[in-house]
Task: inverse folding
């Protein structure tokens, strides 16, 4: 009997799933080409939050481009309503991308149905007849 109880306790603690825990999806990032460069925006983010890392990947391919800042002094301050740096990554026409952005927490930002510390978006880059790049969102 004690073995069964111990086994049950061990399996539930190792599973990492506790009562009341829920997975919170990331907030939606926005993307658009501005002057030939991709501009990533994070609506709802506060200026207190600093950029901790980015990950760009072409759908169906790996690995992608990842830039993670290991130390707090390296985190980037990005003003609200400005483009998130893409570190000169080249977004090609005809490719689908998954983007993930990681920010430091803002404890005053309140609870939401979405995680305010992580943003993500998925889109396809395409060229119009004017040879300008555009973005179409995908799920």
Result:
């Amino acid at each position: 009997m004690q073995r069964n109880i111990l086994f049950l306790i061990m399996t539930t603690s190792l599973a990492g799933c506790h009562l009341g825990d829920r997975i919170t999806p990331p907030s939606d990032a926005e993307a658009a080409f501005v002057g030939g460069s991709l501009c990533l925006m994070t609506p709802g983010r506060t200026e207190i939050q600093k950029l901790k890392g980015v990950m760009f990947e072409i759908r169906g391919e790996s690995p992608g481009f990842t830039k993670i800042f290991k130390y707090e002094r390296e985190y980037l301050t990005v003003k609200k309503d400005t483009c998130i740096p893409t570190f000169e990554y080249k977004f090609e026409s005809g490719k689908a991308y998954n983007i993930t952005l990681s920010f430091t927490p803002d404890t005053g930002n309140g609870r939401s149905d979405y995680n305010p510390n992580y943003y993500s978006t998925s889109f396809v880059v395409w060229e119009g007849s004017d040879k300008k790049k555009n973005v179409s969102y995908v799920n």
Notes: Residues 2-15 form the longest helix (14 residues). DSSP finds one helix and nine strands in the chain. Helices lie at 2-15. The two ends are 49 Å apart (CA to CA).
